[in-house]
Amino acid sequence: MEPTELQQIIARVASVGPIKVWSVVVSVLGDLMQSADDTLGASQLDALVAPMGINNQALRVAVHRLRNDGWVETQRQGRRSRYQLTARGWAETERVRPEIYGATQPNRKSVFLVVGPPQLAAPDFAAQLPKDSAVLTSRSGFVVGRDGVPKNWMCVPHEAAAMPDWVEAAVVPETLAQEYDALRAVVKPLLSLPVPADVLERTALRLAILHHWRRLRLRHGALPDLVLGEDWAGARCRTVVLEALGRLARPELSTLE
């Protein structure tokens, strides 16, 4: 049987980047479960990820891994299984929701320009930078917040200004910008198409888009948005993705049964 046009669209969105099945499951459960008590049937999960090219065997392996990792638990209802986020899975899901779905960015005043002492080797400078940071030159960089910055480094607030190209390249790796652009390019044409009527297919399309957005967004912190504002690939992609997610509204779990 030939795939429908919508199935082809879902497959095209899914193929815009790498698919790790366990990560897709996390995206699906994190999006659809709006309460710590919510559950999703195994057959419904299977139907939602199949359009992304994920078969049942790969799905079972992924769920088994997430269960062993303490992220997902399985409930039995007769011969049927239902999946629920564990307390850990729910807490981690809640922690990243503002980053995944948020349209606003933190205050620019939280960005600092740091400079290490001249005797500090460049690799040591990079190794001592806090998590949400970027190396600009051998001993200078941007950080979000002062936490973790050594006391003998210069640390001054960054003032909002137009950034030269080399700074943007330091803050946003070229591969990340290219992946954001690729996702935006495949999602933007969908905004002019009718919203699919079938709830399972509509939700599968939503989740294919969301998964790749989540995969990219969680690869970095707030720094690119704080330094570059709306003028970078991730911000341009966010605008398109959030509009698409708004059109492909999250369904009530009961409608997927």
Query: How many domain modules?
Result: 2
* N-C termini distance: 25 Å
Poorly predicted regions are: none
Write down the CATH topology of the largest domain.
Answer: Arc Repressor Mutant, subunit A
Radius of gyration: 21 Å
Global mean pLDDT = 92
- Strand sequence of the main sheet, in spatial order? 5-6-4-7
Largest sheet descriptor: 4 strands, antiparallel
CATH architecture descriptor name of the largest domain: Orthogonal Bundle
* Alpha plus pi helix count: 11
Going by helix content, strand content and strand pairing, the class is alpha+beta
Number of strands: 7
Q: How would you describe this protein?
A:
The chain has 257 residues and is an alpha+beta fold. It folds into 2 domains: 5-105 and 178-256, Winged helix-like DNA-binding domain superfamily/Winged helix DNA-binding domain (Arc Repressor Mutant, subunit A), CATH 1.10.10; 108-171. The chain has helices at 5-14, 21-32, 42-49, 56-68, 87-101, 122-128, 165-171, 174-187, 199-217, 223-228, 233-247, and strands spanning 40-41, 72-77, 80-85, 111-115, 133-137, 140-144, 154-157. Strand 2 and strand 3 (80-85) form a beta hairpin. The longest helix has 19 residues, at 199-217. The model has no long low-confidence stretch (mean pLDDT 92).
Descriptive labels:
single chain; 257 residues; four-stranded antiparallel sheet; 2 domains; alpha+beta; Arc Repressor Mutant, subunit A; three-stranded antiparallel sheet
Write the layout of secondary structure elements.
Elements: H1 5-14, H2 21-32, E1 40-41, H3 42-49, H4 56-68, E2 72-77, E3 80-85, H5 87-101, E4 111-115, H6 122-128, E5 133-137, E6 140-144, E7 154-157, H7 165-171, H8 174-187, H9 199-217, H10 223-228, H11 233-247
Antiparallel strand pairs: 1-3, 2-3, 4-6, 4-7, 5-6
